[in-house]
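Quarterly update, task 2.4: 2-oxoadipic acid-bound model.
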Amino acid sequence: MHTNVNTLFDALWQDYIKMTPSAAKVHALLSQGESIINDHIALRTFNIAKVNLDVLAAHFESLGYVACGDYNFAAKKLIAKHFEHPDSTQPKVFISELLVEEFSPELQQIVTGFIDAMDASVVTADNFLYSGRHWVLDSKTYAALLAESEYAAWVAAFGYRANHFTVSINHLPDYDNILEVNQALKQAGFVLNAVGGEVKGSPEVLLEQSSTMADKINMDFSDTKVEIPSCFYEFALRYNMPNGEVYTGFVAASADKIFESTNVN
Ligand code: OOG
Ligand code: NI
């Protein structure tokens, strides 16, 4: 486990920009040399005891993070929690887990095989949250998973690492609203996730979000290389609650669409 929040996020970021070359460019475009505050990052996993949401969360809880919200995505067959740090300038963390038992016996067998192949010590190692994949994967197995669940295929291919970082628009000096951010991104040639509209959420639900479509990388499967979606970048603008405090939760209906930023098509 890491002993310092900043070194953990630095390591997650370094891994993330290797998987997501466009993120470094987006970061440069929006920051204009200033620092960027991350609203949150997200991680994905399977709900198998050795690697489930709680196992990932323990790495953050040991640094002072506390579970704050529960989310359910029935159609995608996954659940999620978000975690906050007492220092509100630290990124929130959104962790989801796939409900493996709700899928076909074939998918269950494939995923169980991956997790069985992992040494138990891997999940408590300092670097677990940016350690990537711990199993052999061929392109046919990836395709079989993809046919049932984009999420399952993504975790199978990329393993343990940040799925996205999220720019806090509230802390961007040069932008007042999410439409301006989206416009700047599109003008620079980045492709936004348009599922359900480019802007997810509204001032009424106290959170507006947008995201790029994931970069495509040439994945080295055990049999061949295939271009597949890796990770994406998200942008979030938060509004104040009636009591004057900023809303710190997530919005399931919006999150449901954000997940699709790693869809193959
Ligand atoms: C998480 C999608 C949800 C948000 O901010 O609502 C999310 C994922 O794609 O793993 O990040
Ligand atoms: Ni997110």
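Highlight for this quarter: The chain has one domain: 5-262.
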